[in-house]
Amino acid sequence: MDGVLLLHKPAGMTSHDCVFRIRRLLKVKKVGHTGTLDPDVSGVLPICIGKATRIAEFLTGASKTYEGEVTLGAATTTEDASGEVIETKKVDRIIQRSEIEHVLEQLTGEIAQTPPMYSAVKVNGKKLYEYARAGIEVERPTRIVTIHELTLLDERETFSGDTVSFRFRVTCSKGTYIRTLAVMIGERLGYPAHMSHLVRTASGPFSLKDCITFEEIEQYIERGEIEKILLPIEKALFYLPKYQINDKVAGKVKNGAILPLPHLLQSLEGPIVVINERKEALALYIKHPAKPHLIKPLKVFAEERAKDRR
């Protein structure tokens, strides 16, 4: 049982909880997720199963899209709705739509973020949330992330009230904390803020409409049709360039052979999926660092598949 399962993660579960439940449902040991979602967040969570765990890194690094909500007027320990309120400030003026849109424009592109204390970022071998739970404040590393698109989804022209909430959509690079982005939006508007709701609507090429719930997974298991919802490795990597070879060359790929760089792929950067005549993914290849006219194996799947057929 190998492939990628596109899970519609429910709120209230950690990503690890989801992996554990799928491992138990499918009775498979090799299961891994492709990018942590906080417990309160629902949405797209690709799960790699069996040999597909070897391509997890190529799905983890993809850009993500979220739809969330910022609430102005209160900051929390965790920067989301689950934390304790640590600062409040009544929204004492009318905020114009144009003002919010200007802030979102300012935060588009490369920005510096400091991860929240309640996060899985490691400092000196320990996760930040472990320090936070012990009441220890440590210096956190600032990172540069990319906000590709940041759009206001609320149609109002003015925003008022003791607290103000509005929805947004963001497409961003790996490592972006949307909780922290919500806080940054609030800071630029002059108020403490937190992220009050969040859904991941896309992870790389996969969107929410492609995903399946735990209840649906159980139904497929009962019907003995679980293979129908597993994306094969070659389909999960459909966005990468393909290089089809014949069966004679496939035997060499199985043994990790270095191959000539295909002429049509000479201008491309990044990995190439080598497929056989049946369109199955045999390996991932990259350009040879010392011999630009050759490609070398990065991940080989064919050897494992050959063993399975014996």
From TrEMBL:
Top-level lineage group: Bacteria
CDD domains: PseudoU_synth_EcTruB
Keywords: Isomerase, tRNA processing
Biological processes, Gene Ontology terms: mRNA pseudouridine synthesis; tRNA pseudouridine synthesis
MF annotations from Gene Ontology: RNA binding; tRNA pseudouridine(55) synthase activity
Entry keyword annotation includes Isomerase: yes
Enzyme Commission code(s) on record: 5.4.99.25
Residue ranges of domain tRNA pseudouridylate synthase B C-terminal in the record: 179-237
InterPro entries recorded: PsdUridine_synth_cat_dom_sf, PsdUridine_synth_N, tRNA_psdUridine_synth_TruB, TruB_C
Active site per the UniProt annotation: 38
Catalyzed reactions per annotation: uridine(55) in tRNA = pseudouridine(55) in tRNA
Segments forming domain Pseudouridine synthase II N-terminal: 23-178
Family, similarity comment: Belongs to the pseudouridine synthase TruB family. Type 1 subfamily.
Role description: Responsible for synthesis of pseudouridine from uracil-55 in the psi GC loop of transfer RNAs.
Annotated protein name in UniProt: tRNA pseudouridine synthase B
Gene designation: truB
